[in-house]
Sequence to fold (322 residues):
Amino acid sequence: MVFKITGKKKVIVIVLFLFVLPSQIFSMTFQNKKKDTVINIFSKDSTIKTLTNKEVAGTKKSTSTKNWITTSPLPRDSANNIAVKLLSESDVYKDAWSGAAVFVYEQFTYANLPDTIKIPLINKGQRFQLTWYGNLNFKYGMRWGRMHKGLDLYLQTGDSVVSTFDGIVRYARFNSGGFGNCVVVRHTNGLETVYGHLSKIMVTENQYVQGGETVGLGGTTGNSTGPHLHFETRYKDFTIDPEMYYDFKTGALLSDTLVLNKSKLSAERYPSSSVKSKRSRRSRYTSKGRSTKKVSNQTSKKNTKTAVRKKASTNTKKPTKK
Fold:
């Protein structure tokens, strides 16, 4: 069967070939160039799943797998009463409690740590829930020549991020050190968890939250190349690998009590960038002080020399003419 194209139909076909099809081909190739990658740790490290721009932006959520239920918050009065009671009575919240910084245990050194640390993760009636959408981007440990002190958990912009255990929000603001929109929760068991790169913070400082309660929405703020949750677990600012207490394959705690050996904790607590900045500030101030001192010494020496010259010139008698 042969179709003859005549008149208006011929014009339409020419327009399609000249304008519509080239633009479609261009947009497809442009979208294919801009892709983010997510590595599934539990299949093969070499297996890479590509996400389009729209999926990375959070307009599609078909790749997120959530098989857990977010905990509903307590009534405001009840939550406030619990927070006031804990802050005033519990030793966990009396030491180094501040909403001004992510790291607050500077007075507690590595030497202060006991050889063995026992932490009861959950007591009766308490809740536990890890933010989990089916993939782990990066584990805890060395990465790109430096220590990665948390987990990079896969999510998309707008996905719920929840508190891991019951506790009180200590820090909830934008962090210029790299975490972006960041929430830190100090839990009743003495641990602190850090939630970085959020698109939106949903809690306030000194607010009581339960395990599984929303603290923010996932995003890519701060030092981030794409949507994910940077999640850290800390004891006195010393980081702990979350896989020491959580099994990602089963989605359950390994034990109700976490037993830590001091040797398992790194003596270096803070990000290398913040340590470098502290050192550079110190060196800048000291060098400035030394340079000022040198300048003042040089000027004083010059002044002394000029004074001696003046004195010598005044004391020297002019020869009398005969």
